[in-house]
């Protein structure tokens, strides 16, 4: 999926990398630290926001036991949940934070994770899941000097009809944002600290993943149909571009090495079906292809409707996502409904 932090299936696919990074951090730091400070970047406020925190807590607990730290009080844990200020942190705290056990303290840290958020050398661990593909802004250079939209009829960089200049504008904006993110974290994370990042990427290994997930292309196709039927103004479509970019693993590796603050411990690539977690909590239900398409469309609606409605109006949302349901069914049937995911574990030099 291209947006949001609710993809539980993606989180479970990433657990081995997360567990390995946290366990190694504990082996190296537990004897020196009374408090481990960690940040979840782009936490959102969905049902699965705290899943990584629970996994981190369990990994720390099991590592302490394995290292015979029972004779010493376990370290206090301090988590910072970061997202943009409009995120409903209060609702999240009321629903979830009271359930955390042990010497664990959780605080909200509103702000843009592309820039500085914490004091120098203050964090031991940083985690981010399905956030860093979101750009800080729509790239510049998507309109000609005479004001003509260069990505006319498209809403993302990954449509085959998008000109190369559009791709370059998105790639350049991702490079700026990701490099700034790395530089900001390099000041905040201690030497030897860890960072695990997960976000959608692109790959030439499967046609469905050449430009990352095809979900935005599918949404764009639905919008073009509605323009043709005069249900949406053409100008609204032509002037709309999603601030999201899915880089290749090779490009991400290049940017990390060029910035120079972190060593790459692991870089994994995972292909995940859009409906991979459809049976979570629904094991007794039988899903036909139409139900699976509807499930994906409903999931996507939950995490994209606000940005789409702000451009095209809430009145057309039911029509839009009904159309998307049918397209998702076709993508699933054709084996093209994949999200190519990058999982990167890094160590601060």
Automatic annotation (TrEMBL):
Q: Give the superkingdom in one word.
A: Eukaryota
One Pfam short name = Methyltransf_7
Keyword set includes Magnesium = yes
Q: Provide the alphabetized UniProt keywords.
A: Magnesium, Metal-binding, Methyltransferase, Transferase
A molecular function (GO) term: methyltransferase activity
Q: Which SUPFAM superfamilies match?
A: S-adenosyl-L-methionine-dependent methyltransferases
> Its Gene Ontology biological processes?
methylation
Q: Which residues form the signal peptide?
A: none
Entry's PANTHER family? S-ADENOSYL-L-METHIONINE:CARBOXYL METHYLTRANSFERASE FAMILY PROTEIN
Q: What is this protein called?
A: Jasmonate O-methyltransferase
Its source organism is Turnera subulata
């Amino acid at each position: 999926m291209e947006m949001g932090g609710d993809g539980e299936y993606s989180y479970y696919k990433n657990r081995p990398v997360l567990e390995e990074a946290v366990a190694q951090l504990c082996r190296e730091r537990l004897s020196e630290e009374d408090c481990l400070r960690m940040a979840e970047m782009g936490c959102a406020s969905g049902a699965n926001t705290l899943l990584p925190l629970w996994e981190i807590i369990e990994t720390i607990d099991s590592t302490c036991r394995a290292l015979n730290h029972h004779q010493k009080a376990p370290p206090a844990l301090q988590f910072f949940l970061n997202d943009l200020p409009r995120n409903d942190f209060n609702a999240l705290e009321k629903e979830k934070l009271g359930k955390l056990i042990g010497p664990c303290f959780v605080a909200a840290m509103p702000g843009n994770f592309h820039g500085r958020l914490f004091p120098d050398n203050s964090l031991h661990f940083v985690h981010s899941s399905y956030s860093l593909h979101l750009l800080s802004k729509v790239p510049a250079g998507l309109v000609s000097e005479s004001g003509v939209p260069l990505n006319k009829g498209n809403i993302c960089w990954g449509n085959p009809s998008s000109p190369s200049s559009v791709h370059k504008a998105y790639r350049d904006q991702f490079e700026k944002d990701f490099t700034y993110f790395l530089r900001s974290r390099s000041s905040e994370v201690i030497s030897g600290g860890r960072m695990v990042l997960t976000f959608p990427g692109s790959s030439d290994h499967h046609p469905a993943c050449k430009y990352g997930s095809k979900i935005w292309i599918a949404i764009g196709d639905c919008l073009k149909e509605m323009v043709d039927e005069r249900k949406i103004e053409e100008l609204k479509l032509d002037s709309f571009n999603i601030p999201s970019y899915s880089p290749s693993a090779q490009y991400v590796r290049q940017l990390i090495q060029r910035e120079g603050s972190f060593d790459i411990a692991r870089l994994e690539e995972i292909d995940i079906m859009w409906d991979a977690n459809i049976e979570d909590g629904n094991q007794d239900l039988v899903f036909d292809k139409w139900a699976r398409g509807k499930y994906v469309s409903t999931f996507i609606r939950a995490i994209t409707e606000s940005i789409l409605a702000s451009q095209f109006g809430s009145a057309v949302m039911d029509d839009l996502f009904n159309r998307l349901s049918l397209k998702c069914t076709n993508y699933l049937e054709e084996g093209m409904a994949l999200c190519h995911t990058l999982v990167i574990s890094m160590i601060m030099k």
